[in-house]
Specification:
4-stranded parallel beta sheet
Length: 253
């Protein structure tokens, strides 16, 4: 970015909110000057991945008082977390519907919707009950990742072992290891493993995607990590089995 003479700063939203920012919290941040402060510092604000983190900035555009509206250009980089952990969904979907509708009218040139895959537009349109007047731009991730040291508290890398990172939505890796005797090093949920460079020290990486847009997939491919994913048929089978057993209140993988 420096070669383009562009200053790029990162803001950690944990300073002001957790997941699923509420409309009430967004209103508070607007009224108490947070939005005005942030928008006064930058020409462009990019909201990526977990879109509700930027709810206050987006919501400010709908304020009646022009002085409370963000003056920066806003880029909303959609993933399937555009509504992640939102509790007041009716209000949130109404806000996003208004922004999508007005993005081609009075807010044209002020807010832009982009995505990193082709599913996002259809998913958002389904949820908000409105279709964008045209296809949004898709910006594919290129897999750039920083190198970090392999954590000392994890099992040592082994070329005879696969690696996998569990998620709070699945226990399938335990089943692979204990029931099917697949040699696999399991990284605990939310535990860092140092990025794709360290995965090259394993036989390969087994990935059971928990959503249709997972950043580590692009990073692993860019680094040449042998990556194994379920076939569409097998993945559909896993999803159906999980749904069926959840109805019976049985914990499954």
């Amino acid at each position: 970015m420096s070669r383009l003479n562009v200053q790029l700063d990162f803001f950690n939203p944990k300073q002001i909110t957790g997941y699923g920012m509420s409309g009430k919290r967004a209103k508070y941040l607007i009224r108490n000057g947070h939005v005005d402060f942030i928008c006064g510092l930058y020409n462009v604000i990019v909201i990526g991945d977990t879109i509700p983190h930027g709810r206050a900035v987006m919501q400010s555009l709908l304020e009646r008082d022009p002085a409370k509206r963000c003056k920066s250009k806003i880029i909303v980089e959609m993933t399937n977390r555009f509504d992640w952990d939102i509790k007041d969904k009716d209000a949130y979907y109404r806000m996003m519907r208004d922004l999508a509708y007005r993005s081609d009218k009075d807010l044209k040139g002020k807010i832009y919707f982009v995505a990193n895959n082709n599913v996002e537009q259809a998913y958002m349109e389904l949820k908000i009950g409105y279709r964008f007047p045209q296809s949004i731009r898709v910006l594919r991730p290129i897999g750039i990742a920083k190198d970090h040291e392999y954590p000392e508290d994890l099992e040592n890398p082994d070329f005879s072992n696969f690696a996998g990172r569990t998620h709070d939505t699945t226990q399938i890796f335990d089943a692979m290891k204990l029931k099917h005797n697949i040699p696999i090093t399991i990284f605990p949920f939310n535990h860092k493993y140092g990025g794709p460079k360290n995965l090259l020290r394993f036989k390969g990486f087994i990935d059971i995607p928990y959503q249709y847009s997972v950043m580590k997939f692009y990073e692993n491919i860019a680094y040449g990590v042998p990556t194994f994913v379920p076939t569409p048929f097998f993945y559909e089978y896993l999803v159906n089995v999980r749904a069926s057993q959840k109805k019976k209140k049985i914990i499954c993988y």
